[in-house]
Write a structure and sequence with these properties.
Helix content: 25-40%
Number of helices: 22
Radius of gyration: 26 Å
Shape: elongated
Low-confidence stretches: 1-19
Strand order of the largest sheet: 11-12-13-14-21-18-17-16
Number of strands: 21
Structural class: alpha+beta
Mean pLDDT: 94
Largest sheet: 8 strands, antiparallel
Length: 625
Protein backbone atom coordinates (compact mmCIF):
# COMPACT_ATOMS: atom_id res chain seq x y z
CA UNK A 1 0.00 0.00 0.00
CA UNK A 2 2.81 2.40 0.92
CA UNK A 3 4.69 1.61 -2.31
CA UNK A 4 1.58 2.22 -4.36
CA UNK A 5 1.00 5.58 -2.62
CA UNK A 6 4.57 6.68 -3.30
CA UNK A 7 4.15 5.63 -6.95
CA UNK A 8 0.95 7.66 -7.34
CA UNK A 9 2.59 10.72 -5.82
CA UNK A 10 5.47 10.40 -8.29
CA UNK A 11 3.00 10.19 -11.18
CA UNK A 12 1.19 13.32 -9.99
CA UNK A 13 4.49 15.14 -9.61
CA UNK A 14 5.52 14.04 -13.11
CA UNK A 15 2.27 15.39 -14.54
CA UNK A 16 2.76 18.79 -12.91
CA UNK A 17 6.39 19.12 -14.03
CA UNK A 18 7.23 20.54 -17.44
CA UNK A 19 9.67 19.02 -19.94
CA UNK A 20 12.08 21.83 -19.01
CA UNK A 21 12.86 19.89 -15.83
CA UNK A 22 13.88 16.85 -17.85
CA UNK A 23 13.24 13.19 -17.33
CA UNK A 24 16.68 12.63 -15.84
CA UNK A 25 15.93 14.77 -12.80
CA UNK A 26 12.33 13.64 -12.60
CA UNK A 27 13.10 9.91 -12.70
CA UNK A 28 16.13 9.32 -10.53
CA UNK A 29 18.43 6.33 -10.44
CA UNK A 30 16.76 5.19 -7.23
CA UNK A 31 13.33 5.28 -8.88
CA UNK A 32 14.57 3.33 -11.89
CA UNK A 33 16.21 0.80 -9.57
CA UNK A 34 12.84 0.33 -7.92
CA UNK A 35 10.57 0.21 -10.97
CA UNK A 36 12.58 -0.77 -14.07
CA UNK A 37 11.92 -4.33 -15.12
CA UNK A 38 14.70 -6.78 -14.22
CA UNK A 39 16.96 -8.22 -16.95
CA UNK A 40 15.29 -11.10 -18.75
CA UNK A 41 11.81 -10.18 -17.49
CA UNK A 42 10.70 -7.68 -20.16
CA UNK A 43 7.61 -9.13 -21.85
CA UNK A 44 5.81 -6.15 -23.37
CA UNK A 45 3.37 -8.10 -25.57
CA UNK A 46 2.10 -11.66 -26.04
CA UNK A 47 4.56 -13.78 -28.02
CA UNK A 48 3.73 -15.66 -31.20
CA UNK A 49 2.87 -18.85 -29.35
CA UNK A 50 -0.05 -17.01 -27.72
CA UNK A 51 -3.43 -17.33 -29.39
CA UNK A 52 -3.87 -13.58 -28.92
CA UNK A 53 -2.77 -12.66 -32.45
CA UNK A 54 -4.97 -15.26 -34.16
CA UNK A 55 -7.99 -14.33 -32.04
CA UNK A 56 -7.77 -10.53 -31.88
CA UNK A 57 -6.64 -9.69 -35.42
CA UNK A 58 -9.39 -10.00 -38.08
CA UNK A 59 -8.95 -12.95 -40.49
CA UNK A 60 -8.81 -10.72 -43.57
CA UNK A 61 -6.00 -8.74 -42.01
CA UNK A 62 -4.07 -11.82 -40.90
CA UNK A 63 -4.33 -13.23 -44.41
CA UNK A 64 -2.92 -9.98 -45.78
CA UNK A 65 0.21 -10.31 -43.63
CA UNK A 66 0.52 -14.00 -44.53
CA UNK A 67 0.13 -13.29 -48.24
CA UNK A 68 2.99 -10.77 -48.13
CA UNK A 69 5.15 -13.24 -46.19
CA UNK A 70 4.50 -15.89 -48.81
CA UNK A 71 6.18 -13.67 -51.40
CA UNK A 72 9.46 -14.37 -49.59
CA UNK A 73 9.11 -18.10 -48.90
CA UNK A 74 12.16 -19.89 -50.25
CA UNK A 75 13.72 -16.67 -51.54
CA UNK A 76 17.53 -16.56 -51.19
CA UNK A 77 19.05 -14.12 -48.75
CA UNK A 78 21.03 -11.37 -50.48
CA UNK A 79 24.71 -10.88 -49.84
CA UNK A 80 25.81 -7.34 -49.06
CA UNK A 81 29.09 -7.38 -50.95
CA UNK A 82 32.16 -5.29 -50.12
CA UNK A 83 32.32 -3.71 -53.62
CA UNK A 84 28.72 -2.57 -53.21
CA UNK A 85 29.53 -1.16 -49.77
CA UNK A 86 32.53 0.71 -51.21
CA UNK A 87 30.48 2.55 -53.86
CA UNK A 88 29.63 5.44 -51.53
CA UNK A 89 33.32 6.23 -51.10
CA UNK A 90 34.26 5.57 -54.74
CA UNK A 91 31.44 7.26 -56.65
CA UNK A 92 29.08 8.81 -54.07
CA UNK A 93 26.20 6.43 -54.77
CA UNK A 94 24.38 5.22 -51.68
CA UNK A 95 21.09 3.96 -53.09
CA UNK A 96 22.31 0.68 -54.62
CA UNK A 97 23.62 -0.66 -51.32
CA UNK A 98 20.65 0.68 -49.39
CA UNK A 99 18.17 -0.93 -51.80
CA UNK A 100 19.66 -4.39 -51.24
CA UNK A 101 20.14 -3.84 -47.49
CA UNK A 102 16.61 -2.57 -46.87
CA UNK A 103 14.96 -5.26 -48.98
CA UNK A 104 16.81 -7.98 -47.04
CA UNK A 105 15.50 -6.60 -43.75
CA UNK A 106 12.03 -6.17 -45.24
CA UNK A 107 12.17 -9.86 -46.17
CA UNK A 108 12.89 -10.85 -42.57
CA UNK A 109 10.19 -8.59 -41.13
CA UNK A 110 7.52 -9.85 -43.53
CA UNK A 111 8.36 -13.50 -42.89
CA UNK A 112 8.28 -12.93 -39.13
CA UNK A 113 4.90 -11.20 -39.27
CA UNK A 114 3.46 -13.95 -41.46
CA UNK A 115 4.56 -16.59 -38.96
CA UNK A 116 3.09 -14.64 -36.04
CA UNK A 117 -0.23 -14.39 -37.86
CA UNK A 118 -0.37 -18.00 -39.10
CA UNK A 119 1.37 -19.79 -36.24
CA UNK A 120 2.05 -23.19 -37.79
CA UNK A 121 5.83 -23.02 -38.38
CA UNK A 122 5.68 -22.69 -42.16
CA UNK A 123 7.95 -19.62 -42.24
CA UNK A 124 10.39 -20.54 -39.46
CA UNK A 125 13.16 -22.11 -41.55
CA UNK A 126 13.33 -19.04 -43.78
CA UNK A 127 13.39 -16.79 -40.71
CA UNK A 128 16.23 -18.77 -39.16
CA UNK A 129 18.25 -18.57 -42.39
CA UNK A 130 17.61 -14.83 -42.50
CA UNK A 131 18.70 -14.27 -38.91
CA UNK A 132 21.88 -16.25 -39.53
CA UNK A 133 22.55 -14.25 -42.70
CA UNK A 134 22.23 -11.02 -40.70
CA UNK A 135 24.65 -12.34 -38.08
CA UNK A 136 27.14 -13.06 -40.86
CA UNK A 137 27.14 -9.42 -42.00
CA UNK A 138 30.21 -7.53 -40.80
CA UNK A 139 28.28 -4.37 -39.94
CA UNK A 140 24.54 -3.62 -40.02
CA UNK A 141 24.70 0.08 -40.85
CA UNK A 142 25.04 2.07 -44.07
CA UNK A 143 28.20 3.04 -45.99
CA UNK A 144 27.21 6.73 -45.83
CA UNK A 145 27.63 6.53 -42.04
CA UNK A 146 30.95 4.64 -42.00
CA UNK A 147 34.47 6.00 -42.05
CA UNK A 148 36.14 3.58 -44.45
CA UNK A 149 35.31 1.93 -47.77
CA UNK A 150 35.04 -1.48 -46.12
CA UNK A 151 33.43 -2.34 -42.76
CA UNK A 152 35.58 -3.82 -40.03
CA UNK A 153 34.35 -6.39 -37.54
CA UNK A 154 36.08 -4.57 -34.69
CA UNK A 155 34.55 -1.18 -35.58
CA UNK A 156 30.88 -1.36 -34.63
CA UNK A 157 29.93 2.27 -35.03
CA UNK A 158 26.33 2.71 -33.88
CA UNK A 159 24.46 4.46 -36.67
CA UNK A 160 20.76 4.63 -37.58
CA UNK A 161 20.54 1.33 -39.39
CA UNK A 162 22.94 -0.64 -37.25
CA UNK A 163 20.51 0.21 -34.46
CA UNK A 164 17.41 -0.31 -36.61
CA UNK A 165 18.57 -3.76 -37.73
CA UNK A 166 19.31 -4.66 -34.12
CA UNK A 167 15.78 -3.62 -33.18
CA UNK A 168 14.32 -5.87 -35.87
CA UNK A 169 16.49 -8.78 -34.72
CA UNK A 170 15.52 -8.51 -31.04
CA UNK A 171 11.80 -8.23 -31.81
CA UNK A 172 11.94 -11.28 -34.08
CA UNK A 173 13.84 -13.20 -31.41
CA UNK A 174 11.37 -12.14 -28.70
CA UNK A 175 8.19 -12.81 -30.63
CA UNK A 176 9.33 -16.17 -32.05
CA UNK A 177 11.75 -17.40 -29.38
CA UNK A 178 10.02 -20.72 -28.74
CA UNK A 179 9.63 -21.51 -32.43
CA UNK A 180 13.23 -20.55 -33.26
CA UNK A 181 14.79 -22.46 -30.38
CA UNK A 182 12.82 -25.59 -31.25
CA UNK A 183 14.78 -25.81 -34.52
CA UNK A 184 17.96 -23.85 -33.75
CA UNK A 185 18.57 -24.00 -29.98
CA UNK A 186 21.57 -21.63 -29.91
CA UNK A 187 20.39 -18.96 -32.34
CA UNK A 188 18.65 -16.66 -29.89
CA UNK A 189 21.75 -16.66 -27.69
CA UNK A 190 23.85 -15.87 -30.76
CA UNK A 191 21.59 -12.91 -31.48
CA UNK A 192 21.95 -11.67 -27.90
CA UNK A 193 25.74 -11.95 -28.16
CA UNK A 194 25.73 -10.00 -31.43
CA UNK A 195 23.52 -7.30 -29.93
CA UNK A 196 25.91 -6.94 -27.03
CA UNK A 197 28.92 -6.65 -29.35
CA UNK A 198 27.33 -4.39 -31.97
CA UNK A 199 25.00 -2.19 -29.88
CA UNK A 200 25.01 -2.56 -26.10
CA UNK A 201 28.73 -2.23 -25.48
CA UNK A 202 29.63 0.53 -27.99
CA UNK A 203 26.47 2.58 -27.37
CA UNK A 204 27.06 2.64 -23.61
CA UNK A 205 30.79 3.36 -23.66
CA UNK A 206 31.11 5.77 -26.62
CA UNK A 207 30.23 9.45 -26.38
CA UNK A 208 28.55 9.59 -29.79
CA UNK A 209 27.55 13.02 -31.13
CA UNK A 210 23.97 11.86 -31.65
CA UNK A 211 23.46 11.50 -27.90
CA UNK A 212 23.49 15.31 -27.70
CA UNK A 213 21.71 16.05 -30.98
CA UNK A 214 18.40 17.85 -31.42
CA UNK A 215 17.54 15.99 -34.63
CA UNK A 216 16.28 12.57 -35.69
CA UNK A 217 19.45 10.55 -35.07
CA UNK A 218 19.02 10.95 -31.32
CA UNK A 219 15.57 9.40 -30.72
CA UNK A 220 15.82 7.09 -33.73
CA UNK A 221 18.91 5.38 -32.34
CA UNK A 222 17.90 5.69 -28.69
CA UNK A 223 14.54 4.00 -29.26
CA UNK A 224 16.27 1.06 -30.94
CA UNK A 225 19.06 0.97 -28.37
CA UNK A 226 16.46 0.91 -25.58
CA UNK A 227 14.69 -2.10 -27.11
CA UNK A 228 18.03 -3.91 -27.24
CA UNK A 229 18.74 -3.04 -23.60
CA UNK A 230 15.34 -4.24 -22.40
CA UNK A 231 15.37 -7.48 -24.37
CA UNK A 232 19.07 -8.40 -24.20
CA UNK A 233 21.02 -6.77 -21.36
CA UNK A 234 21.68 -9.33 -18.60
CA UNK A 235 23.63 -7.14 -16.16
CA UNK A 236 21.46 -5.00 -13.87
CA UNK A 237 24.02 -2.20 -13.44
CA UNK A 238 24.69 -1.93 -17.17
CA UNK A 239 20.94 -1.99 -17.84
CA UNK A 240 20.38 0.94 -15.47
CA UNK A 241 23.41 2.80 -16.83
CA UNK A 242 22.10 2.46 -20.38
CA UNK A 243 18.55 3.52 -19.53
CA UNK A 244 19.86 6.58 -17.70
CA UNK A 245 22.00 7.52 -20.70
CA UNK A 246 19.04 7.07 -23.02
CA UNK A 247 16.82 9.25 -20.84
CA UNK A 248 19.49 11.96 -20.75
CA UNK A 249 19.82 11.84 -24.55
CA UNK A 250 16.06 12.08 -25.03
CA UNK A 251 16.02 15.07 -22.67
CA UNK A 252 18.53 16.81 -24.89
CA UNK A 253 16.46 16.06 -27.97
CA UNK A 254 13.32 17.50 -26.36
CA UNK A 255 15.18 20.51 -25.00
CA UNK A 256 16.38 21.36 -28.50
CA UNK A 257 12.87 21.27 -29.91
CA UNK A 258 10.79 24.45 -30.14
CA UNK A 259 7.91 24.81 -27.71
CA UNK A 260 5.40 24.55 -30.57
CA UNK A 261 6.62 21.00 -31.27
CA UNK A 262 7.45 21.73 -34.90
CA UNK A 263 9.83 19.44 -36.81
CA UNK A 264 12.19 21.63 -38.86
CA UNK A 265 13.47 18.54 -40.66
CA UNK A 266 10.11 18.30 -42.42
CA UNK A 267 7.02 16.15 -42.06
CA UNK A 268 8.82 13.22 -43.68
CA UNK A 269 11.26 13.13 -40.76
CA UNK A 270 8.56 13.33 -38.10
CA UNK A 271 8.37 9.55 -38.40
CA UNK A 272 11.92 9.26 -37.08
CA UNK A 273 12.03 12.33 -34.87
CA UNK A 274 8.96 12.84 -32.67
CA UNK A 275 7.59 9.39 -33.52
CA UNK A 276 10.83 7.67 -32.54
CA UNK A 277 10.80 9.68 -29.31
CA UNK A 278 7.37 8.19 -28.68
CA UNK A 279 8.72 4.69 -29.42
CA UNK A 280 11.25 5.19 -26.64
CA UNK A 281 8.79 6.78 -24.21
CA UNK A 282 6.31 3.97 -24.76
CA UNK A 283 8.96 1.34 -23.97
CA UNK A 284 9.99 3.31 -20.90
CA UNK A 285 6.42 3.39 -19.63
CA UNK A 286 5.98 -0.34 -20.26
CA UNK A 287 9.29 -1.25 -18.65
CA UNK A 288 8.75 0.87 -15.52
CA UNK A 289 5.17 -0.15 -14.82
CA UNK A 290 3.94 3.31 -15.79
CA UNK A 291 6.47 5.32 -13.78
CA UNK A 292 8.00 7.11 -16.77
CA UNK A 293 5.06 8.89 -18.35
CA UNK A 294 5.39 12.05 -20.43
CA UNK A 295 1.92 11.98 -21.94
CA UNK A 296 0.84 15.24 -20.26
CA UNK A 297 3.87 17.19 -21.43
CA UNK A 298 2.75 20.18 -23.56
CA UNK A 299 5.79 20.12 -25.82
CA UNK A 300 5.39 16.40 -26.50
CA UNK A 301 1.73 16.98 -27.31
CA UNK A 302 2.81 19.60 -29.84
CA UNK A 303 5.38 17.24 -31.30
CA UNK A 304 2.72 14.60 -31.79
CA UNK A 305 0.12 16.91 -33.30
CA UNK A 306 2.61 18.27 -35.86
CA UNK A 307 1.87 15.33 -38.15
CA UNK A 308 -1.79 16.24 -38.58
CA UNK A 309 -1.26 20.00 -38.44
CA UNK A 310 0.87 19.71 -41.59
CA UNK A 311 -1.52 17.32 -43.33
CA UNK A 312 -2.98 18.47 -46.65
CA UNK A 313 -5.35 15.60 -47.42
CA UNK A 314 -5.55 12.53 -49.64
CA UNK A 315 -2.40 11.13 -48.00
CA UNK A 316 -0.38 14.27 -48.73
CA UNK A 317 1.64 16.38 -46.30
CA UNK A 318 3.62 19.60 -46.41
CA UNK A 319 7.07 18.69 -47.66
CA UNK A 320 9.39 21.54 -46.67
CA UNK A 321 13.07 20.59 -46.14
CA UNK A 322 14.42 17.13 -47.00
CA UNK A 323 11.12 15.40 -47.54
CA UNK A 324 11.28 12.48 -49.93
CA UNK A 325 7.89 13.14 -51.43
CA UNK A 326 4.68 14.60 -50.08
CA UNK A 327 2.95 11.30 -49.25
CA UNK A 328 4.48 10.93 -45.79
CA UNK A 329 1.41 10.58 -43.58
CA UNK A 330 1.21 6.78 -43.84
CA UNK A 331 2.59 5.85 -40.46
CA UNK A 332 -0.65 4.55 -38.96
CA UNK A 333 1.31 2.03 -36.91
CA UNK A 334 2.87 4.84 -34.86
CA UNK A 335 0.37 7.69 -35.29
CA UNK A 336 -2.39 5.72 -33.59
CA UNK A 337 -0.47 4.45 -30.53
CA UNK A 338 1.08 7.90 -30.16
CA UNK A 339 -2.41 9.44 -30.24
CA UNK A 340 -3.64 6.98 -27.61
CA UNK A 341 -0.61 7.77 -25.43
CA UNK A 342 -1.33 11.50 -25.64
CA UNK A 343 -5.10 11.04 -25.40
CA UNK A 344 -5.28 13.13 -28.58
CA UNK A 345 -8.68 12.40 -30.11
CA UNK A 346 -7.88 14.25 -33.35
CA UNK A 347 -4.70 12.21 -33.80
CA UNK A 348 -6.47 8.91 -33.19
CA UNK A 349 -9.25 9.71 -35.64
CA UNK A 350 -6.67 10.92 -38.16
CA UNK A 351 -4.91 7.56 -37.96
CA UNK A 352 -8.18 5.75 -38.56
CA UNK A 353 -8.86 7.94 -41.61
CA UNK A 354 -5.43 6.98 -43.01
CA UNK A 355 -6.13 3.26 -42.69
CA UNK A 356 -6.04 1.62 -46.12
CA UNK A 357 -8.23 -1.31 -45.07
CA UNK A 358 -7.74 -4.66 -43.35
CA UNK A 359 -6.99 -6.39 -46.66
CA UNK A 360 -4.12 -3.94 -47.29
CA UNK A 361 -2.47 -4.28 -43.89
CA UNK A 362 0.33 -6.54 -45.06
CA UNK A 363 1.24 -4.43 -48.06
CA UNK A 364 1.19 -1.26 -45.98
CA UNK A 365 3.42 -2.89 -43.37
CA UNK A 366 5.83 -3.95 -46.10
CA UNK A 367 6.14 -0.54 -47.77
CA UNK A 368 5.54 2.22 -45.24
CA UNK A 369 9.14 2.64 -44.07
CA UNK A 370 12.73 2.03 -45.16
CA UNK A 371 12.08 -1.54 -44.08
CA UNK A 372 9.58 -3.25 -41.86
CA UNK A 373 9.46 -2.09 -38.24
CA UNK A 374 8.17 -5.20 -36.51
CA UNK A 375 8.15 -3.69 -33.02
CA UNK A 376 6.01 -0.75 -34.08
CA UNK A 377 3.60 -3.00 -35.90
CA UNK A 378 3.15 -5.27 -32.88
CA UNK A 379 2.51 -2.30 -30.58
CA UNK A 380 -0.05 -0.98 -33.06
CA UNK A 381 -1.76 -4.37 -33.34
CA UNK A 382 -1.97 -4.58 -29.56
CA UNK A 383 -4.28 -1.53 -29.86
CA UNK A 384 -6.19 -2.85 -32.85
CA UNK A 385 -9.38 -3.82 -31.05
CA UNK A 386 -9.77 -0.21 -29.93
CA UNK A 387 -8.61 1.07 -33.34
CA UNK A 388 -11.44 -0.82 -35.09
CA UNK A 389 -14.01 1.19 -33.15
CA UNK A 390 -12.32 4.54 -33.72
CA UNK A 391 -14.18 7.17 -35.74
CA UNK A 392 -12.29 8.10 -38.91
CA UNK A 393 -11.91 11.84 -39.40
CA UNK A 394 -9.60 13.91 -41.58
CA UNK A 395 -8.32 16.73 -39.32
CA UNK A 396 -8.57 19.43 -42.07
CA UNK A 397 -7.67 22.19 -39.60
CA UNK A 398 -8.71 25.53 -41.12
CA UNK A 399 -5.78 27.46 -39.59
CA UNK A 400 -2.47 26.41 -38.03
CA UNK A 401 0.36 28.60 -36.80
CA UNK A 402 3.61 27.22 -35.42
CA UNK A 403 5.22 30.39 -34.00
CA UNK A 404 8.68 28.94 -33.33
CA UNK A 405 9.05 27.15 -36.64
CA UNK A 406 7.12 29.98 -38.36
CA UNK A 407 4.90 27.74 -40.46
CA UNK A 408 1.38 28.79 -41.38
CA UNK A 409 -1.39 26.58 -42.76
CA UNK A 410 -4.73 27.84 -44.05
CA UNK A 411 -7.46 26.16 -46.07
CA UNK A 412 -10.98 26.56 -47.36
CA UNK A 413 -13.25 24.27 -49.38
CA UNK A 414 -10.92 24.28 -52.40
CA UNK A 415 -7.56 25.86 -51.59
CA UNK A 416 -4.79 24.73 -49.27
CA UNK A 417 -1.95 27.12 -48.41
CA UNK A 418 1.21 26.59 -46.38
CA UNK A 419 4.01 29.11 -45.93
CA UNK A 420 7.19 29.22 -43.89
CA UNK A 421 9.50 31.78 -42.36
CA UNK A 422 12.37 30.57 -40.21
CA UNK A 423 16.01 30.65 -41.26
CA UNK A 424 18.38 28.93 -43.67
CA UNK A 425 20.26 26.75 -41.21
CA UNK A 426 17.45 24.45 -40.14
CA UNK A 427 18.01 20.72 -39.93
CA UNK A 428 17.95 19.24 -43.46
CA UNK A 429 17.78 22.86 -44.61
CA UNK A 430 16.79 24.19 -47.99
CA UNK A 431 17.17 27.89 -48.82
CA UNK A 432 13.43 28.47 -48.71
CA UNK A 433 12.54 31.21 -46.23
CA UNK A 434 9.29 32.83 -47.32
CA UNK A 435 8.33 30.08 -49.72
CA UNK A 436 4.76 28.83 -49.90
CA UNK A 437 2.93 25.91 -51.48
CA UNK A 438 -0.61 25.78 -52.84
CA UNK A 439 -2.93 22.85 -53.50
CA UNK A 440 -6.28 23.16 -55.26
CA UNK A 441 -8.89 20.51 -54.54
CA UNK A 442 -6.02 18.42 -53.07
CA UNK A 443 -4.08 18.65 -56.33
CA UNK A 444 -0.59 20.23 -56.19
CA UNK A 445 -0.46 23.61 -57.93
CA UNK A 446 2.66 25.40 -56.63
CA UNK A 447 5.02 22.92 -55.04
CA UNK A 448 8.21 22.46 -53.11
CA UNK A 449 10.06 19.76 -55.10
CA UNK A 450 11.52 18.31 -51.91
CA UNK A 451 14.72 16.32 -52.24
CA UNK A 452 15.96 13.71 -54.67
CA UNK A 453 17.91 10.57 -53.88
CA UNK A 454 20.55 11.07 -51.21
CA UNK A 455 24.16 10.97 -52.41
CA UNK A 456 27.51 11.86 -50.89
CA UNK A 457 26.89 15.45 -52.01
CA UNK A 458 23.60 15.78 -50.12
CA UNK A 459 25.33 16.13 -46.76
CA UNK A 460 28.68 17.32 -48.06
CA UNK A 461 30.28 20.72 -48.51
CA UNK A 462 28.61 21.19 -51.89
CA UNK A 463 25.06 20.56 -50.68
CA UNK A 464 23.79 23.89 -51.98
CA UNK A 465 25.02 23.15 -55.49
CA UNK A 466 22.10 20.70 -55.67
CA UNK A 467 19.22 22.42 -57.44
CA UNK A 468 16.52 21.28 -55.00
CA UNK A 469 18.30 23.12 -52.17
CA UNK A 470 18.33 26.47 -53.98
CA UNK A 471 15.77 29.24 -53.54
CA UNK A 472 15.32 29.69 -57.29
CA UNK A 473 13.65 26.25 -57.34
CA UNK A 474 11.27 27.20 -54.57
CA UNK A 475 8.42 29.69 -54.81
CA UNK A 476 10.58 32.72 -54.12
CA UNK A 477 12.02 35.89 -55.66
CA UNK A 478 15.37 36.10 -57.34
CA UNK A 479 16.64 39.61 -56.62
CA UNK A 480 19.16 41.27 -58.91
CA UNK A 481 19.93 37.79 -60.20
CA UNK A 482 20.86 36.61 -56.69
CA UNK A 483 19.33 33.72 -54.71
CA UNK A 484 18.99 33.22 -50.96
CA UNK A 485 22.04 32.11 -48.99
CA UNK A 486 22.43 29.33 -46.45
CA UNK A 487 23.22 30.08 -42.81
CA UNK A 488 21.46 30.90 -39.57
CA UNK A 489 21.87 34.66 -40.05
CA UNK A 490 19.84 34.44 -43.25
CA UNK A 491 16.43 34.55 -41.64
CA UNK A 492 12.98 36.07 -41.77
CA UNK A 493 12.29 39.34 -39.94
CA UNK A 494 9.14 41.26 -39.07
CA UNK A 495 7.09 38.07 -39.00
CA UNK A 496 3.39 38.86 -38.57
CA UNK A 497 0.64 36.25 -38.45
CA UNK A 498 -3.11 36.30 -38.17
CA UNK A 499 -5.41 33.45 -39.23
CA UNK A 500 -5.02 32.95 -42.95
CA UNK A 501 -2.36 35.67 -43.33
CA UNK A 502 1.43 35.58 -42.98
CA UNK A 503 3.76 38.49 -43.66
CA UNK A 504 7.56 38.14 -43.55
CA UNK A 505 10.47 40.34 -44.55
CA UNK A 506 12.86 38.03 -46.39
CA UNK A 507 15.46 40.67 -47.36
CA UNK A 508 17.98 39.31 -44.83
CA UNK A 509 17.90 35.86 -46.41
CA UNK A 510 19.82 37.24 -49.42
CA UNK A 511 23.53 38.09 -49.43
CA UNK A 512 24.81 41.66 -49.72
CA UNK A 513 25.21 41.48 -53.49
CA UNK A 514 21.42 41.18 -53.86
CA UNK A 515 21.29 44.83 -52.68
CA UNK A 516 17.89 44.43 -51.07
CA UNK A 517 16.85 46.55 -48.11
CA UNK A 518 13.31 45.25 -47.70
CA UNK A 519 11.24 42.52 -49.29
CA UNK A 520 8.00 41.99 -47.42
CA UNK A 521 5.96 39.12 -48.76
CA UNK A 522 2.40 38.84 -47.51
CA UNK A 523 0.33 35.79 -48.40
CA UNK A 524 -3.37 35.82 -47.56
CA UNK A 525 -6.12 33.27 -48.06
CA UNK A 526 -9.44 34.98 -48.66
CA UNK A 527 -11.74 32.10 -47.77
CA UNK A 528 -13.73 30.59 -50.64
CA UNK A 529 -12.29 33.12 -53.07
CA UNK A 530 -8.53 33.27 -53.71
CA UNK A 531 -5.01 33.51 -52.35
CA UNK A 532 -3.53 37.00 -52.63
CA UNK A 533 0.24 37.58 -52.57
CA UNK A 534 1.82 41.00 -52.21
CA UNK A 535 5.52 41.68 -52.73
CA UNK A 536 6.55 45.03 -51.19
CA UNK A 537 10.23 45.79 -51.80
CA UNK A 538 12.97 48.36 -51.50
CA UNK A 539 16.30 47.82 -53.25
CA UNK A 540 19.58 49.66 -52.81
CA UNK A 541 20.06 49.37 -56.52
CA UNK A 542 18.38 47.55 -59.39
CA UNK A 543 20.80 45.92 -61.81
CA UNK A 544 18.16 43.71 -63.36
CA UNK A 545 14.42 43.18 -62.82
CA UNK A 546 13.42 40.87 -60.00
CA UNK A 547 11.96 37.50 -60.93
CA UNK A 548 9.32 35.59 -58.96
CA UNK A 549 9.89 31.86 -59.33
CA UNK A 550 7.25 29.16 -58.94
CA UNK A 551 7.43 25.40 -59.43
CA UNK A 552 4.56 23.28 -60.72
CA UNK A 553 3.96 19.85 -62.21
CA UNK A 554 1.16 21.02 -64.49
CA UNK A 555 1.97 22.51 -67.90
CA UNK A 556 1.23 26.24 -67.48
CA UNK A 557 -0.80 28.07 -70.14
CA UNK A 558 0.27 31.71 -70.32
CA UNK A 559 -1.69 34.71 -71.53
CA UNK A 560 -1.29 38.44 -71.04
CA UNK A 561 -2.48 38.70 -67.46
CA UNK A 562 -2.81 35.17 -66.19
CA UNK A 563 -1.24 31.73 -66.01
CA UNK A 564 -3.56 28.75 -66.11
CA UNK A 565 -2.53 25.72 -64.04
CA UNK A 566 -5.16 23.06 -64.56
CA UNK A 567 -8.41 24.25 -62.99
CA UNK A 568 -6.67 27.19 -61.32
CA UNK A 569 -4.85 30.30 -62.43
CA UNK A 570 -2.46 33.00 -61.27
CA UNK A 571 -3.88 36.42 -62.12
CA UNK A 572 -1.76 39.60 -62.28
CA UNK A 573 -1.52 42.99 -63.91
CA UNK A 574 0.48 42.82 -67.11
CA UNK A 575 1.79 46.30 -66.36
CA UNK A 576 3.47 44.88 -63.26
CA UNK A 577 4.50 41.36 -64.26
CA UNK A 578 5.35 39.38 -67.37
CA UNK A 579 5.00 35.59 -67.34
CA UNK A 580 7.12 32.87 -68.89
CA UNK A 581 8.01 29.31 -68.01
CA UNK A 582 10.64 26.67 -68.59
CA UNK A 583 10.55 22.90 -68.56
CA UNK A 584 12.85 21.58 -65.81
CA UNK A 585 11.87 17.93 -66.14
CA UNK A 586 15.43 17.02 -67.10
CA UNK A 587 16.51 17.84 -63.53
CA UNK A 588 14.34 15.10 -62.00
CA UNK A 589 15.82 11.88 -60.71
CA UNK A 590 13.90 8.66 -60.07
CA UNK A 591 13.05 9.66 -56.50
CA UNK A 592 11.46 12.93 -57.59
CA UNK A 593 9.65 11.30 -60.51
CA UNK A 594 8.14 8.77 -58.13
CA UNK A 595 6.56 11.65 -56.22
CA UNK A 596 5.69 14.17 -58.91
CA UNK A 597 5.61 12.27 -62.19
CA UNK A 598 7.79 12.88 -65.21
CA UNK A 599 7.13 16.58 -65.78
CA UNK A 600 8.05 19.69 -63.80
CA UNK A 601 8.02 23.34 -64.81
CA UNK A 602 9.32 26.61 -63.42
CA UNK A 603 7.09 29.63 -63.87
CA UNK A 604 8.83 33.02 -63.94
CA UNK A 605 7.01 36.29 -63.26
CA UNK A 606 9.40 39.10 -64.16
CA UNK A 607 8.81 42.47 -62.53
CA UNK A 608 8.25 45.09 -65.24
CA UNK A 609 10.17 47.88 -63.54
CA UNK A 610 13.75 48.89 -62.79
CA UNK A 611 12.72 51.10 -59.90
CA UNK A 612 14.30 50.43 -56.53
CA UNK A 613 11.00 50.65 -54.71
CA UNK A 614 7.74 49.00 -55.61
CA UNK A 615 4.84 46.73 -54.80
CA UNK A 616 3.34 44.01 -56.97
CA UNK A 617 0.50 41.64 -56.26
CA UNK A 618 -1.11 38.60 -57.81
CA UNK A 619 -3.87 36.15 -56.99
CA UNK A 620 -4.26 32.40 -57.19
CA UNK A 621 -7.83 31.34 -57.72
CA UNK A 622 -10.10 28.74 -59.20
CA UNK A 623 -11.31 29.17 -62.75
CA UNK A 624 -14.95 30.04 -63.08
CA UNK A 625 -17.00 27.07 -64.25
Amino acid sequence: MEKRLIFMLMLICGTLCSSAQGMKSRYTRAMLEEYLVRPGEFKPLPQANSTYWREKIPPLMRMSYIRVGEEYLGKPWAELSLPLFAEFKTNGNRTRYETVCFEKRRQLGCLAMAEIMEGNGRFIDDIIHGLQSMIDEIWWGLPAHYGTAAPLREDQNVDLFNAETANLMVWVAYMLREEIEARSPQLCQQIRDEIERRILQPALTTNYWWKRAGMNWNPWICSNWLACVLFCETDRKLQLDAVQQIIESLDRFMDAYPQDGGCDEGAAYWNRAAASLFDALYLLRLSTGGLVDMSEDPKLQGMGSFIYKTYIGDGQSINFADSHGNNTARQVDVIYPFGVYLNDVVMCRFARALWAGDDRAGEEYKTRDNFTTLGREMVFLSHFERFQHETAADPALPNVWLPDLQIMVARDRHLFLAMKGGHNDESHNHNDVGSFIVYGDLHPLLIDPGVGAYTAQTFGNNRYDIWTMQSEYHNLPQINGINQHEGKDFRAHSVKYSPGVLSVDIAATYPAEAAVGKWVRQVRLVSDHFIEVTEDYELKECTRPAKLMFVTTTLPLISKNRIEIGDYMICFKHSQLKASYEDISNLLDDTLRETWGDKMYRIILTVQSNRTKGKVSYRIRRKKH
